[in-house]
Design a protein that fits this description.
With about 375 residues, the chain is mainly alpha-helical. The protein contains 11 helices and no strands. The radius of gyration is 27 Å and the shape is elongated.
Length: about 375
């Protein structure tokens, strides 16, 4: 009996990769959540210790330097991004280390220490709640990837016959320049850029750590090619920059979305893929995958080089913050949060783009008939 030769390429299917992303997303987020909860307990213990310490301090006893150091260490990760937390820690530590107790200042120092410590702990607890909510949302993205993988798998297996090669259809996308083609392309770009900006503005009102600023850039690139895709990317990001909703250097990420989508379409469907009548969902998901990876790498480098690990999106910054409180490694937090958020964001963009692409195909064919 002959053994069937194993082909490594068979495991590199988009549905398997989506499942792999889901497993990584769930495992990493659960790990960081567990570490964050341990950090929260560590921090609460330090507050209890410092309260006992300043009771002794007010009685005139010598302070324990190890307890103050323990307190500063437990709160350090929260002070990195928050000036109020940082100043409160300095106030508490300075009083305990440098002030001398006397009958004239004992009551004032007691009130100051009590108020500052209580307010600081309340503020940190608020942040902890927000960070846990962010991690829980990231965990929920696991189900999105699993459902998407299942849909692709089922879609492939219910076909009764092998899918025919994608055929060119010159009645849908004419290679020759015409006023109608130019107007169709221009209108599509304007609509896509407007919806890109709307998606970015909408997500700021919600709690989801996504960008949604390039939801239709892949669709424009699929329908009209690289140059229109880049125009859509630049137009979308420029508008968001003027609205103070994006940092200008991140425009490179948006351009790379169009570029890697274009490279994927050319590789999977041929150089003249714009003439293709039907680009399947799998190709759009591959475009979203490569765009997400390129955006994660480029965006993380820009964030680490030019900004204090922050974007203009608070929900995304909270994910970085949550991982940072778990690991105390800012670079690792930036890379993990950037990868998870960009992969999810670009897969959602790929799904919306294929709908937009189908609409363009429909109206273009109707116009030519």
């Amino acid at each position: 009996m002959m053994c069937r030769k194993f082909n490594l390429k068979t495991i590199f299917k988009i549905e398997y990769i989506l499942i792999l992303i889901a497993v990584f997303n769930f495992s990493a987020t659960q790990f960081f959540r567990k570490k964050a909860l341990q950090n929260f307990t560590f921090m609460d213990n330090s507050f209890t210790a410092v309260r006992l310490q300043y009771i002794d301090f007010l009685k005139g006893f010598t302070i324990d330097e190890e307890i103050i150091t323990f307190f500063e260490k437990s709160c350090r990760v929260y002070a990195y991004f928050d000036e109020y937390v940082q100043n409160s820690i300095i106030v508490i530590s300075t009083i305990l280390r440098e002030y001398h107790i006397s009958d004239s200042n004992r009551e004032n120092l007691r009130n100051l220490l009590t108020a500052t410590t209580t307010e600081l702990q309340i503020e940190i607890h608020k942040k902890q709640k927000i960070l846990l909510q962010g991690l829980d949302i990231i965990i929920n993205f696991t189900f999105f990837f699993i459902v998407l993988a299942a849909f692709v798998f089922i879609k492939k297996n219910i076909r009764k016959s092998k899918r025919p090669e994608i055929q060119a259809d010159d009645t849908v996308f004419d290679k020759e320049f015409s006023i109608k083609t130019f107007l169709m392309t221009s209108i599509a770009i304007i609509i896509a850029a407007d919806l890109n900006c709307s998606g970015s503005l909408l997500i700021r009102k919600l709690t989801y750590p996504l960008y949604l600023d390039s939801i239709l850039t892949i669709g424009i690139t699929a329908a009209f090619g690289l140059i229109p895709g880049i125009i859509c990317a630049v137009m979308s990001h420029s508008i968001l920059y003027l609205l103070d909703c994006a940092n200008l250097p991140f425009i490179l990420c948006h351009i790379l979305t169009a570029f890697f989508a274009w490279r994927t379409f050319r590789r999977k469907a041929g150089k003249n893929y714009q003439l293709n009548r039907q680009l399947p969902l799998e190709i759009f998901l591959w475009a979203g995958l490569w765009s997400g990876i390129s955006n994660a790498i480029t965006g993380n480098i820009i964030s680490m080089s030019m900004f204090p690990a922050e974007t203009t999106l608070k929900n995304l910054d909270n994910i970085t913050y949550a991982i940072f409180t778990s690991t105390e490694n800012l670079n690792l937090a930036i890379w993990i949060s950037g990868l998870l958020s960009n992969l999810t964001d670009k897969m959602i963009s790929a799904l919306l783009s294929i709908i937009f692409y189908k609409l363009i195909c429909f109206f273009r064919k109707k116009q030519c008939s």
